[in-house]
Amino acid sequence: MLLGALLLAGGGGLAVSAAAHAPGKPIDWPDARGWKLWLIALGSLVLFVALARPLGFLVCSFVFVAGFIGYFGRYRLPVALAWAMGVAVFIYVVFVRLLALTLPMGLLDFLP
Amino acid sequence: MDAWSSLLNGFAAALTPTNLLFALIGSIAGTLVGVLPGLGPTAAIAMLLPLASHLDPAPAIIMMAAIYYGAMYGGSTTSILVNIPGEASSVPTAMEGYQLNLQGRGGPALGISALASFAAGTMGVVGLTFFAPVLSRAALAFGPPEYFALTFLGLSLVVSLSGRDLGKGLLSALLGLLTAVVGLDPLTGVARLTFGSMELMAGIDFVPIIMGLFAISEILANAEKETTCILESRRIEWLPTWQDIKDTWAATTRSGVIGFLAGLIPGCSPAVTSFMVYDLEKRLSRHPERFGKGAMDAVAAVEGSNNATASGGFVPLFAFGIPSGPALAVLLGGFLMYGLQPGPRLMQEQPALLWTIIASMYIGNVMLLVLNLPLVGLWARMALIPFPILGPMIAVFTLIGAYSLRHSFFDLWISLLFGVVGYLMRKLDFPVAPMVLATVLAKLMETSFMQSLVMSKGSPLIFFTRPISIAFMVLTAISVVSGFLLRLKARSQRVELEESDA
Predict the structure, then answer these.
(1) A57-80 as b/e, with b when 16 or more CB fall inside 10 Å?
(2) Closest-CA residue to B379 (of B69, B89, B110)
(3) Pick from B301, B304, B261, B311: nearest CA to B119
(4) Which end of chain B offers a freer environment for a tag, N or C, measured as fewer CB atoms within 10 Å?
(5) Taking CB atoms and an 8 Å limit, are A10 and B174 in contact across chains?
């Protein structure tokens, strides 16, 4: 009730201030290509979270990092794979072994 | 002087090789968990509890305490370099420090935050050494009405955190309060806005929200622009200059005092203090226009206050056995494992142990400074990594951090959702800080508000009849009014500026 009243007041205030002010700087929306890249970035993050349970964090991180570097950075495949491998090994050594976090391992469940 | 001789004995005990080694291990581990986003000192201390059972009490508790205050040093690193505040208390650091990093001044910002952490942290330990018994009594005077008045004061900062448009700032704060409403009512246990979902019943934790608002939205914004490198300028400075230190020492000292005093209050988290000192520095600063575009004194104040609050939190712990936050609660568990119950009796029965721990905190702060300053150059170089390589790494570490908090995939979806929310807020020019502040404060605010009303049988007069509470209420009124006046002044200046341009 109170929250609703405050929301109304805030919305009303915003409407009034919008009407009173001269138009400010235009919103900097991306162009069509920007939207495509934006959607690909968000989509890959969604895929990462969706697949983290069945495949495991390590596999997902590897694929995600390699794909991101390859697609957005246009690096050659071996470079992307090397970075991805580095990230996966770092996660395993630091998070899983050293800090003993229980991450879902999925396909790599056999690792100690 | 009683404290002096006790402290000297404490130093003698803390300087033994074993105790030094464990202070060092704790400092390194604390820096590490502070740097890794999402992993906090609470989890790190909890993970080390079983290991500590093989040790004597003194080295074990020295190590766990060092993890706690060490994490405060590391927390600034990712905020400044990649705009991921690991904890809520580093959010203002990210707002200013990341801007500095984009200007190539990431190195000095990191150096200043290490120096401020050291200076204010040491001030906090000095306060702990000499004023603990006197000040600890004040902490006990805090009941629900005082807590509500304190959070109310915190929320009033929205006026000055809102940037150019107050309406947008208020809406942003309301959105933050709204997310905190989701879950069970803290007093009656009624489910609110859960739509029958089990996950929503537990409420939305603020860490995944912060991760989404900052890290994920940063990745989305950069992906769309095809950023190749996050640095705007090619010129990079590594270490702070004398000028930087001269510009920031006043802010550091002020925030050290405020941070320590706030740390005395159980339940007053470093996040609350860091927003308060940020706001205070903005008002006192001779160049308030720099705030939001990279203000070095803000970085110093916020990082200093974190560390002073961390040291201050040991006062109620040692004096009464009251932990002022989750991390200190786990540390209390460490004491209990050895059959030690912190409180007035421990101070009389085991003074040597307590003074050893206090002395080790002086040593630990020096170690942390020595550890962190040389690392600054190394960390600052991270800004040179091209975005297509840095971006996915930020994403992966953020998501692991958000997951590890509650082992919940639901939290990951929350992070992504708030990543999109944060992206839209950025584009539509909504300030993020009020929302973070509201999410962090909401739980304590609501609980203490309801408890106060139960105490007073429903009369809101209770907030104006108790001395500490009314003092906070007056401060709130001053904060709001002066915030409006500053806002009007800034607006008229801006209008003049625009007219002179035309």
Answers:
(1) bbbbbbbbbbbbbbbbbebeeeeb
(2) B110
(3) B304
(4) C
(5) yes
Q: Are B70 and B364 in contact (CB under 8 A)?
A: yes
Residues of B in contact with A41 (CB under 8 A): 219-220, 223-224
Taking alpha carbons only, the member of B234, B285, B282, B304 closest to residue B75 is: B304
Backbone angles phi, psi at B373, to 5 degrees: -60, -45
Nearest Cα residue to B173 out of B183, B192, B184, B159: B159
pTM of the model: 0.81
Which among A14, A72, A87 is the nearest to B393, CB-wise?
Answer: A87
Measure the CA–CA gap between B252 and B93, rounded to whole angstroms: 13
CA distances from B142 to A16, A101, B154, B267, B304 (A): 41, 37, 16, 10, 24
φ, ψ (nearest 5 deg) of residue A61: -60, -45
Which residues are within 8 A (CB) of B113 and not within 5 positions of it... i.e. 6 or more apart?
B76, B80, B93, B97, B299, B300, B303
Which tokens is A22 given?
């001269």
User: Rounded to an integer, what distance in angstroms lies between the CA atom of residue A100 and that of residue A94?
Assistant: 8
CA B220 to chain centre: 26
Q: Taking CB atoms and an 8 Å cutoff, what residues of chain A touch B219?
A: 41, 45
Candidates A14, A68, A75; nearest CB to B171: A14
User: CA B231, CA B81: separation in Å to the nearest integer?
Assistant: 10
Please write the tens of the pLDDT for every residue from B92-144. Answer: 898 898 888 888 888 889 989 999 999 999 999 988 888 776 766 666 778 88
Give the Cβ contact number of residue B31 at 10 Å. 24
Query: B405-419, pLDDT tens digit by residue?
Result: 788 899 999 999 999
pLDDT tens for residues B258-287? 999 888 887 677 788 888 899 888 888 888
The ipTM, to two decimals, is: 0.83
